[in-house]
Amino acid sequence: MTISEFYPLPVSEIREKYYPNLANQTYLDHAGTTVYSSLTLDKIHQKLSKTLLANPHSLSSASRDTASLVEETRYKILSIFHVDPAEYDIVFSLNATHAIKIAASLIQDAAESSFNYYYNINCHTSLIGLRTLAAKYATFDDISSFEPVEDKDGKHPALNFVSWTGQSNFNGQKFPLGWCKEFRRRLDHCYTLYDASALSTSDPPDLSDANSSPDFVVMSFYKIFGMPDIGALILRRSTAKQLVEKRRYFGGGTIDALTIEEPFCRRSKQLHQSLEDGTIPIHAILELSVAIDSHYQIFGSFNSIRLHTDEIRKYAICKLKQLKYGNTGRRMLQIYDWPGAKHGPIIAFSLLSQAGDPIGYYGFGKLASARNISLRTGTLCNIGGIQKFLDRTNEDIRQDYEKGHKCGDILDIIDGKPTGVIRVSFGAMTMTSEIDTLVKFITEYLKDSNLNIEKGNPGEKQELVVKSLTVYPIKSCPGYRIPEGRKWKLTKHGFEFDRSFVLLDLLTQKPLLLKNNPRMALLDCRVDPEKHMLYVRDKRGGNKLWVSTNIRRYKTKQMGDFIAISERKMVKFFSDVMSIGCTLAGFVTEKQMQNKTAFLLVNERSMRQVSKDDSLISRFRANIVVDSAHPYIEDKLSVLTDMDSGVVLKKRCKCDRCYMITVSDKGSRDPSLLVELSKERKQKGKVYFGVNIDVENVGYRYMRVGDRIVGEE
């Protein structure tokens, strides 16, 4: 299947000429944000270099020129949506969610918090959030399922507010703009809000007929042009004028007259000015003006973009539906489309095993990222789509939360059911080759590795030797390799001082993690067990710090579940290394210090099957590194006994490797190890290497390098 060309240049030439940031990338997350062009950046730089922007509230010539630029940009935006400026105005916002809040505040003030709210179940979380402001709320899937809410006396409230999305950010399903006519017919004093955020990436709605268009339309421009990070609220003048008169709050620049003590205030008669509290983002608005012009120069029109993305989606659907297991003919994935509905350039799907069971999205997303494939996984801020297409009830959602599941975590399968999906979305510059890359990756991902474990004779004991022992005093930071010949104390919970501390983000009050903060690899950490001191050094500049392992000796502050050092010298040291505000912290209770398992054990012989570079073994952050006669022998062993110290270890599970192993010792990203590992060690979508073990018997309460270990199945 080939697709037509709709642009002034072939899309391959457009990519090469205007999108160098997409080189060697497979970008399939345009519903999250599309990609800005180098043409836009160059023109922005030129214009900012030659243009003096000033606060439009001032009266200088630069201020007047800035105000003119802002007004020109408003007209450019209204033109995209075919809006008559006499019927609609536009208010700049931080993003679409902020635009929703502006509209909601107008409704709330006018109704004095007594209004009914209706929202479509396919909408974004930001629209669902408005229900907390309403007296009553109800949901609907389609116009046929829309039912007005009645009070006990059978009367409707004085005001009704209805919202729906133009295109589901879950799977691209489109919903009619013209529904607002039916809402107005069935509800008195009805106000309508249309979320055009996802739709406008490729197909901005036509608002030329004011009588059949909503009262409010919201959008985010980074979803359309890649930048800037601002949004807008397009609002009907006749509607907004009534509501603004009852607006309570006012900010700088929104009024014509005001007294300091008496409640005298006269708002600006310009609609957008009365709602844009404070100084508008003039630099971002200049960037937006340039981005609009550049977009038209590159792609010609939004109709061309719509035609292109429609063809890309058809191509992707065709390719994905062809994916089947060769031995059974069963499909490899399930696509979540609504039969008979129109869809924009978004596809949501789940992977299936050969038996037809769902495969979680987390491992897929992890390995996709390692291959430079950008996509989205999880609930997508669209719980309605999750419940509708994954058949999850309200009770399922509650129970999942009680089991620990929350947005953005790794719990992708609970009780055999997926908690989220994989989403790919396409933009103006998407190429068919990116779809081909995705399809090839799915095929490879669903093919399990041949683990090739040399089992030997059944019941035969396996001999291993301890090659290195490492403690990680600060979670996610480099470890301290215990010198050969030195005994190291252990307990039922692991090695002494292992993962006893964290680097705590002072803003979020959460521990920093290596997979999100690669600079943690720049810290050299050592422990002196006799002196109970922790030595920390910045690998780059040599700055160092000695810290007592009893951090309560210092000035501390409790932050959530942690006791954090608040002394300026230490806060500055760690913050300088990490480039964010952080400090060393310990746990409030000893129970919180305990890891899920006591140790992680990996095998040097197994590592040689994956890579010839022995230094890479440090990325696995193992406490115990052993060597054996055969690779992967650790997978089948259940009990390991240290013949020199009497310590008995029991395997709990194989270790599912995370994105952390893509961080090099220098703090840079290098996905090659994870990619190679996935070829050798992937089973049912998870990549395994090493085993998690617990202490069954502490023996003489120590281990050391060179100890002989006997393993049994």
Automatic annotation (TrEMBL):
One of its GO terms (biological process) is Mo-molybdopterin cofactor biosynthetic process. Residues 572-712 form the MOSC domain. It comes from the Eukaryota. Signal peptide: none annotated. InterPro entries: Aminotrans_V_dom, MoCF_Sase_C, MOCOS_middle, PyrdxlP-dep_Trfase, PyrdxlP-dep_Trfase_major, PyrdxlP-dep_Trfase_small. Keywords: Molybdenum cofactor biosynthesis. Transmembrane segments: none annotated. This is DEBR0S6_00804g1_1.
